[in-house]
Amino acid sequence: MAVQDEDADLVRAVIAGDDEAFAELVRRHKGAILRSAARFARNHAELEDLGQETFLRAYRDLRSFRGEAPFGHWLSRITVRVCYDALRNRRREEKDVSLDALAAPVADPSTENGPSAQQARLILDRAMSRLKPEDRLVITLFELEDRSVREVAEMTGWSETLVKVRAFRARAALKRSIGGDDER
Amino acid sequence: MNDKRHDRRDEYLDLLFARGRQAPPDVSGVERNFETRVMARIREWREPWYAWAWRLAPVLLALTVLLAGWSMLYPPVHPADPVTALASVNQEVALVDYLAGE
Known about the structure:
The structure holds two protein chains of two kinds.
Chain A: H1 3-15, H2 19-38, H3 44-60, H4 71-93, H5 99-103, H6 117-128, H7 133-144, H8 149-156, H9 160-179
Chain B: H1 2-22, H2 28-31, H3 34-46, H4 51-55, H5 57-73, H6 82-99
């Protein structure tokens, strides 16, 4: 039996009242969902919250899953919405961040061998924290999750044109950020 | 000159993204028993509002015991019964009237 059919069967079982079936769905998809949410979380506690919120919303809205797309895709869309909400809330919390801290360049592009994977993630995390939530969401899905424009549009519910505009804007802001503001 | 710098930043950003993709975030710590915690959260969410009332039972019981103890230690002081007091005054007045021949 295909994974997709098995998922659909499990969803039907959950709707019929079988909680263990939902636990099985969580077991099957937690890895992908948590890896995706981890691109937006600042620490493990926040990742735990994002993951739990995703599955709680999925459980609550399970009847709206029609089975036309794989369950994993449906779950990914919920993850994107949960992470976007978290980014927007965080933005409100971080409005008091010092302007001096935001103005400092985060990396030197002239580094000889380039950064390690770990360093790259840290540099990107810091630079991306300055982006608008919608721009950060798009550039993360597009560049780090390697999704196509169409996929990003489907996941976010925004038009492909809007996704392209936001990706372009985010990229331009990141370029300014990683090299300081001397270009202006 | 500016174009060159622009190109270098593009290349650097692409390098950062490529390295970022190479190292997917480590989620093993959160993944462990994650389904158990999710199911606990779902059970909590499904609980009806009155289920919370049972959680207050120990607090209410403790409060009852405290009040009972308080009332036993400090019994209320009853003031004199006003009706009885009035009746006794009336009796005295009637006796005085009788003795005075009124």
